[in-house]
Design brief:
Layout lengths: L1 H4 L5 E5 L2 H13 L5 E6 L3 H11 L4 E5 L13 H8 L10
Parallel strand pairs: 1-2, 2-3
Length: 95
């Protein structure tokens, strides 16, 4: 935890499958005092609003990622990752 508290950017990735979400909840409980980006995969639309309500008073920025079967597909969910790291990246304009 000491190392995590020194980080500027924490990203927790998980799913909302019943047998996996317990681990996400446990991690959130441990990290509750730190700013956190939570990326959840495989989340049905009907469950997304419930999760948003559950986390609305927490220090969590929540993203639901789209389906991406290829782990090395640089385009899938690229906008989400660009949004998360925008403060840490500098893009030089091509002249």
């Amino acid at each position: 935890m000491k190392t995590l508290k020194q980080c500027e950017l924490l990203i927790l990735c998980g799913t909302t499958k019943p047998y996996e979400f317990a681990f996400v909840r446990a991690a959130l409980a441990e990290l509750c005092d730190m700013p956190l980006f939570l990326l959840l995969s495989y989340t049905p639309k009907k469950v997304q609003s419930e999760i948003c309500n559950m986390l609305k008073n927490k220090n969590v920025q929540l993203y639901f990622t789209g389906y991406s079967p290829d782990l090395f597909d640089g385009k899938a969910n690229a906008a989400i990752y660009a949004e998360i790291v925008k403060e840490y990246t500098h893009v030089k304009a091509i002249e």
